[in-house]
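Why does residue order matter? Because the sequence determines the fold. Keep that principle in mind as you read this record.
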Amino acid sequence: MSPRIGVVLFPGTNCELDVSWAVEQLGASARIVWHTDTSLADVDAVVIPGGFAHGDYLRTGAIAKLSPVMDAVARLAADGGPVVGICNGFQVLTEAGLLPGALQKNAGLTFRCETVGVRVESSRSALTGRAEPGAVLQLPINHFEGNYVCTAETLAELQAEERVVLRYVDNPNGSIDDIAGICSPGRNVVGLMPHPERASDAILGSADGVVLLESLLDAASSFSAASGAVAS
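Structure:
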């Protein structure tokens, strides 16, 4: 059975169809999950895509974290299910406490929309399992608040546990330690600012995001198999 990927839709989300299309091209099925849903039904992984959840009023992701669906996302994460937040989704995951740190306005207060080099630092996460450490991927960014910040203690923990999974080659937004993506202690929750779904077809400019999306589908399939074994 192909993995089933839930794609969370908040008012203001604008990348849900991009993510759905990209994972479907790789053989998965995608299901849009509305932010007021209290259950994720039978999905094997969840993606919180980019956009402007609730218009990014208050703080980016601060209202989205209160949506009923986030309780279901937190339960899936606690059970070891793959959860990926892309761009605005990364911001939501930090606000919800599923990942540490926060995203603030870019250095120089400039909106960045370009393709950047992103180096794979670890293959030990739900999003990088197929990726080769040291490989540089060309991925698009599209954000104003992508500057990742955290306390010195959190940074030391991320570094010691090899939970920085992606770093910028040339830092576009001022993120501490050039961080482009991190994962949870269980390595199943991943947040990143670049958009792998927008680099899933060479005709569109780059297919470098495919290895990340394929890694997610692998993780979803493994979680599904493990859940089925427990249930039986």
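The chain has one domain: 4-231.
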